[in-house]
Structure formats: structure tokens, C-alpha cells
Amino acid sequence: MRPFRSSCPASGLFLLFSLLTAVLDTRGAQAPQTLQWISPAPGTVLRLNESYPLAATASSGLPVTFERIEGPAVLTNNTIQVTNAGSVLLRARQVGDEQWQSVSEFRLFNPATIQGTEISSILVSERALDIELAGPLAFIANGTQGLIIQDISTPEIPQWIGRVPLPGSAARVAIQGALAYVVSIGLGLQIVDISQPTQPVVRGTLPLEGIRPALKVVGRRAYLGDSQRGLVIVDISDPAQPVERGWIRTPALINGIDVAGERVYVAAGAAGLQIYEVSTPGTPSWLGGLRFSADATDVQVVGSTATVAASVAGLRLVDVSNPSSPKMQATLATQGYASRLQWIGSKVFLAAASGGLQVVDLLLTERRRVAGEIPVQRSALGLKVAGDVAYVLTDHYGVRIFRLREGIRQQLNFTLPSQ
Fold first, then answer.
1. How many helices (H) and strands (E) does the chain have?
2. Beta carbons of 372 and 390 less than 8 angstroms apart
3. CB–CB of 251/239 below 8 Å?
4. Radius of gyration of the chain from Cα atoms?
5. 403 and 119 in contact (C-beta within 8 Å)?
6. H/E stretch holding 46
7. Which residue, of 41, 114, 171, 378, is most buried by count of CB atoms within 10 Å of its CB?
8. 135 with 163: CB under 8 angstroms?
9. Whole-angstrom Cα distance, residue 268 to residue 360?
10. Residue of 356, 412, 392 whose CA lies nearest to 130
11. What is the CA angle 30-35-36, rounded to 5?
12. What would the mean pLDDT of 17-29 be, rounded to a whole number?
């Protein structure tokens, strides 16, 4: 097993689902052709640093080329050599000519699994409701105890750094530069100067009595959920005096928020995924939405795909390339209750209550997208992954810390000696 690394770039991953099936390009009156992928055969385990021949034929008789789409492998002279543990996605392609259409086929090798070992924990006096990481520090929204700061430079031995008491109940936190933005239920938005982590200081406050545990900070704006009005946009250019700029009513309570450009994506409970245009923050407008069979609890957008945690229904992937008409792209049932998510590279990490920490690999085929199921004592309510370490919020007053390892499943055949 190797340490899991969360440094895989996310750009382009929204295309993976279309890549996992054969693709046929239509060009006028050209004739279609087919591919026969000879080797490696489906399901072949490609061993580390060994060369395997790449072979395929096209019904047209034209030459077939191979290309690595994702994963730790090198292709040389129609051979493939795997250089590390991890899923490898290849494409065989015949580009066609004046007579023949192009044709492609995609094949996945070495589907990796992720395991987690608990290495330590952070105990707090109330339930940890959110966690954000910034360098060697962890910031924990700790209910009526306010904002807790821990040194996690050595995850096995987290160290207390400081605490800032806050009115209300700290439920969400976001870090931008030397400032922490904290949703405090019953009060509103609190902005805390963390330039000196041992002595954090409140810089500004925006009262919002109906504030929800949902927050996204991007540039000079903070996006919040309000139980009475819906989506609220706040100007945070001056941290000492945050100013509300606009709001728009949502069809249900907001559980999660993500932002891409001038569009805001909202996990809106029973209303599913809702999309808003905020180029003019004073007058935001609704673009479109998509309802699910269960409540939407969190959302993250990469490119033209939104991943949505859908509570008892697991994970949903939605094509948002046309925001006025989002389309379901893929569904995945997971164990437990999917409440929070984090999308890193080809992996989606889900805090799934009694289902623990679920890891979904978007490179895997429809029948096997769950790459890891890591049990968590009590319920997994939230998470943050950095490098090969996962910080999981539980309902038992704290954060459990796991070291992640990625590898390929193997089988052991044991035969008793004959008498």
C-alpha cells in the first residue's frame, strides 16, 4: 500500500463518465468501424514496473493508437508499464479517414482501494460541527465553545494552539488569508483575525438571526444560508464592517454552498440542487435546478459537473454545463447518510454518518465505484482531507484522524498440504 495523495488535479475530471464507454464520432457519410482490444485483457492486474503489450485491431484495418488518460503509468512502443499504485485509465483509438469514422474504447486497470488507519483524535468539549485546514493548523467550529485552533503539523500528536469564544453556536468555518469566517447559529457571521493563532481576535460581525450552517467564501464575498430568506450575499471587502449586498429566496433550507465564477450552487434539502447567477450581487437570479429522491446536503462543483451529497440516497453527479437545465449524470448508493463531501482528483470523500467515511473513485465502472469504506466510531458528520490524512467529525465530541493508504486488492490462495 502507498500513502494516498490528494494532489491529483481536478480539472477535466467532469469528463470521466463519458470516457468510460466506447465513443463513436460521426462524420458525414463515412462508414462506422469497430475496435477489438486484445491486450491487456479486462481485469488484468498490471504489476509494478513490468511491461505489458498493448494490442488492438480496427475492423477497417487501419492502425490503432493508445493513450493514457489518467493514472501512474508510462506508454512506450505499444507497451504499458505501471509506475505506482492507483487506477489507470487507457484509451484505444482509431482516428478514421475519408472513408471510416473514428472510434475509441476506454479501459480501466488496477482499480485502487483506499484504507484508513486511525492515528489520533482531537477531543473537544462539545460536538465538532466543522473543520477547515490552513497549513499546519486546523480550525474547528465547536458550537458554544466558539472556534478552536489546533496545530496538526504532526497529525499523530495534535497540539492545542488557541480558542476564541463566540456568541451563538459556531457551526461552519472558512479560511481566507489571515481571516477565519465563522457561521454562528443564533447570531450571524463572525470574522476572526487569525494572524496570531495563539491570540485570535474578532474583527467584524454581521447579525443574521436566521443564519444556516452553510458558508462559502470567495474573494470579497461570503455566501450564506438564511432560514427566512434563502441565499444571502455579503461584501467582506472590509472585514471590520461586512455588508449585506443581496439575497434571493430559495425553495428549501440551504445545507451546502459552492461557487464557480458568477454562479452559486446550493444544496437545498428537499429542493435538491439549485443554481443562481450572482454577477450582480444586489439582484441575484435563479437559473435552474434539479430535485432528487432525497435531501441534498452538500455540493461541490468542478468544471461542468456538480457532485451532490444526497443524504439517504448517496451521491449524485449532475451535468451543469447548461445551468438552466441541469441533467443527472450518475448516481451511486452509499452506506449510511451522506451529509458532507470533498472532491479531490478522481476521488469523492463522503461523511456518511453510520456508514463512516466513504471513498468513491470516479474512474471506476458503474458496478464498483466505492473505493473505500472506512469505519468511524460513532457517526461521521463531516470531513476534511489533506494529503494522506483525513480529519473526520463525529458525534462523540471530537475529530478522529485517519492515515489513508491506497493500493490494489490482492487475493491469497492457500492450499493445505496433502497427507
1. 1, 38
2. no
3. no
4. 24
5. yes
6. none
7. 114
8. no
9. 22
10. 392
11. 155
12. 48
Q: Which pLDDT band, with edges at 50, 70 and 90, does 20 fall under?
A: very low
Amino acid at 408: I
Query: pTM of this prediction?
Result: 0.83
**Are 345 and 10 within 8 A, CB to CB?**
yes
Q: What is the mean pLDDT of the chain?
A: 91
Which grid coordinates are listed for 216?
A: 462559502
Which one-letter amino acid corresponds to residue 218?
V
Contacts 24+ apart (CB under 8 A), 5-9: 5/387, 5/388, 6/344, 6/345, 6/347, 6/385, 6/386, 6/387, 6/388, 7/345, 7/387, 8/344, 8/345, 8/346, 8/347, 9/345
Cβ neighbours for 4, distance < 8 A, ≥ 6 positions apart: 114, 388, 404, 405, 406
Q: Which helix (H) or strand (E) holds 3?
A: strand 2-3
pLDDT in tens, 150-175: 999 999 999 999 999 999 999 999 99
Return d(Cα 275, Cα 286) in angstroms, integer.
6
Q: What pLDDT shows up at residue 265?
A: 98
Give the 3-state secondary structure of 136-204. Answer: CEEEEECECCCEEEEECCCCCCCEEEEEECCCCEEEEEEEECCEEEEEEECCEEEEEECCCCCCCEEEE
Distance CA 234, CA 290 (A): 26
